[in-house]
Amino acid sequence: MTAAHTIPMTNTTSSPAASGPVKEARKRTWWGKNGHQATVWMLRVALFLAFLVVWYVASLIVPNPMFISDPIAVWDQLVEWIVDGTIVFHTWITVQEVALGYVIGVLTGAVAGFILASIHLIYSVFEPFMMALYSIPKVALAPLFIVWFGIGIDMKIILAAVSVFFLVFLNTAAGVREVERGLIDAVRLMGGTKRDVAFKVVLPASMAGLLTGLKVSIPYALIGAVIGELVASNRGLGYLINDSASQFNTAGVFAAVAVLTVLAMLLNGVVALISARTGRWKPIGDA
Amino acid sequence: MTTVLEIEHLTKEFQRDDVATVALRDFSLTIERGTFVTVLGRSGCGKSTMLNLLSGLSKPTSGRVLHNGDAHTGPTPEIGYLTQSDTLMPWRTVLRNVEMPLEIAGRDKTDRTRVARDLISRVGLDGFADSYPRELSGGMRRRASLARMLAYGAETILMDEPFGALDAQLRTELQGELLRLWSQTGQTIIFVTHDIDEALLLGDRVVVLGPLGTVLLDQEIDIPRPRDPDRTTVDSRFIELHLELANALKEGARQ
Ligand SMILES: Nc1ncnc2c1ncn2[C@@H]1O[C@H](COP(=O)(O)OP(=O)(O)O)[C@@H](O)[C@H]1O
Ligand SMILES: [Mg+2]
User: Fold this and answer.
1) Each residue of A153-175: pLDDT tens digit?
2) pLDDT tier at A14 (50, 70, 90 boundaries)?
3) Helix H or strand E encompassing A105
4) What are phi and psi of A187, to 5 degrees?
């Protein structure tokens, strides 16, 4: 919202706003508004360049290119893969796994969290089991999923979905359980049914929890998918890392990791976008 | 006059482990239709507990409440309850908060918007219909809560220290507005407060409560209406009654 925005209102003497704050226009210069951000970004670029320089110098000192390779070799490998389509092919596979796993995990986690947490008895029964399953490293489930789903894309999707499911489930459930008692009572006083309470209070009130779940689980979808690829696969960025390593192509490992990093940064960008939206307490579809 | 609420031997205990906190013991009261009854008591004497029972939100340990002759089983929109704390939905605008009871009653969209806008204007919130509760001051939130409660069209209204947390100026203003609204509709109001002046200014009758909800005094207020927060409080009869109530509260504390 710009600083020049004002709220028009009729200010009669009896109006409750008479003793309240007022909004006034205050123009700021470009540097006043963006100076801090610009400085931060310049320092980030500088840090990245410094890292490349240190890496390059280190590669001159360490004799064996198998250990840390060097930035130029990694760059050449990247260019080669971009040109021959390797990057696009494997990245697309990983992106599909992440996206599908995320959607499945979110849908099941949100619905299960909302329903189970709405019924106190059921939640009390389920909670310790859910916490236990949440706590085990998901990579431990990979062998089981390979038996059930093979080593194709399905197994990675399920692994990503499972990682996402628990985070969304637990956050949604926490949101449901933290709904203020007073708000529920307010609806009961209006003669509202259990259904009214669920849809007009618990659902919108638990949105904050759900959105937290949506946010924190995004990186875990990527982690789940890539772990699946590392365990067993013939496609995807995780496979590309494994494959390069098995050929002692350290530059290839770094190149694949670099692509993975970019992908993670893009996903974190999505997270930041969601955060910006949830930061403001806005109505979220409770029609 | 007809009786609208009959409270018979209400007792409320809160059980926790092996200890029961008794908040209200053997409390009885009869409320006539169309009267403005103020209930005065120090904090912790069981006022909120009593209103929770009257509204049907909580169940008595023993005793019962009759509303228009029928025993209470749960909350009903026929009884409006303005609770001590704000319970506006933070994700709804003032307008949509006020519309909520009408929505639940199944009224159609245009109808409920019209009723809600009228109520918002009656409590003096014109221009704030599209604001969210967090954008309002405490006093404005109280007004919005009041408008929402009036939207049920309840004949019996319970209010729990509704103006307790407001500055003196605003309280006087809202007391005046409440009296004006009430004079137009003639509902039955049970208004809980810990403020002697407020109890006297608003009520036809003051019930003074001691510990565990014992009735220390049940007094008609024979001060003519319309009353005015600024002028009535310096009336000689008002001062006389003030001393009487203050004494009753003191007696109660000594017991
Ligand atoms: N949910 C509860 N659990 C245990 N004790 C309670 C509960 N609600 C109220 N009480 C107790 O009952 C007494 C009366 O409380 P309340 O009705 O809120 O008083 P008032 O509204 O007059 O200040 C207090 O001593 C309080 O500790
Ligand atoms: Mg209270």
Assistant:
1) 999 999 999 999 999 999 999 99
2) very low
3) helix A86-118
4) -70, -35
- Residue B75 Cβ contacting ligand 1 at under 6 Å: no
| Confidence grade of residue B255 (pLDDT, cut at 50, 70, 90) | low
Alpha-carbon torsion, ordered B32, B38, B41, B47, to 10 deg: 60
Q: Per-residue b/e over A146-171, b at no fewer than 16 CB within 10 Å?
A: beebebebebbbbbbbbbbbbbbbbb
Ligand nearest to C-alpha B53: 1
Pocket residue to mutate for ligand 1, from B11, B49, B216, most atoms within 8 A of Cβ: B49
Token pair recorded at residue B44: 């912790």
Q: Do A187 and B104 touch (CB under 8 A)?
A: yes
Least CB–CB distance from B87: residue in A16, A183, A192: A183
Q: In sequence order, what DSSP letters do the residues of A214-245 get, joined into one string?
A: HHHHHHHHHHHHHHHHHHS-SSSHHHHHHHHH
**How far does chain B reach from its first CA to its final CA, in angstroms?**
34
Taking only the tens place, the pLDDT of each residue in A114-125 is 999 988 899 999
Q: What is the pLDDT of residues B202-211, one digit of tens each?
A: 999 999 999 9
**CB–CB contact B77 A189 (8 Å):** yes
Question: pLDDT averaged over chain A?
Answer: 86
CATH (residue range A69-286)? 1.10.3720.10
- Concatenating the DSSP letter of every residue in A272-285 gives HHHHHHHHS----S
Q: Is pLDDT above 70 for A283?
A: no
Identify each DSSP E strand in chain B by its residue range: 3-16, 19-32, 36-41, 62-67, 70-71, 79-82, 156-160, 188-193, 205-209, 215-220
Mean pLDDT over residues B176-193, rounded?
90
Residue B237 to residue B252: CA distance in whole angstroms: 23
Specify the residue with its C-alpha closest to ligand 1, atom 8: B49
ipTM of the complex: 0.89
Residue B51 near residue B33 (C-beta atoms within 8 A):
no
Chain B residue numbers touching A188 (CB-CB < 8 A): 57, 74-75
Best mutation target, B100, B122, B157, to test chain A (most A CBs within 10 A): B100
Q: List, as ranges, residues with CB under 5 A of the ion ligand 2.
A: B 48
Q: Please report where in the chains the tokens 């008591």 appear, as a residue.
A: B41
Residue B134 structure tokens: 């967090």
Strand order through the sheet with B215-220: B79-82, B156-160, B188-193, B36-41, B205-209, B215-220
Which residue in A has a C-alpha nearest to residue B158's C-alpha?
Answer: A189
Taking the C-alpha atoms of residue B88 and residue B99, their distance in angstroms, rounded to an integer, is 11
- Strand pairing report for B19-32 and B3-16: antiparallel
Q: What is the residue-averaged pLDDT of chain B?
A: 91
Ligand 1 atom at minimal distance to the Cα of residue B43: 23
DSSP H helical ranges for A62-85: 65-68, 71-84
High-pLDDT (> 90) share of chain B, %: 68
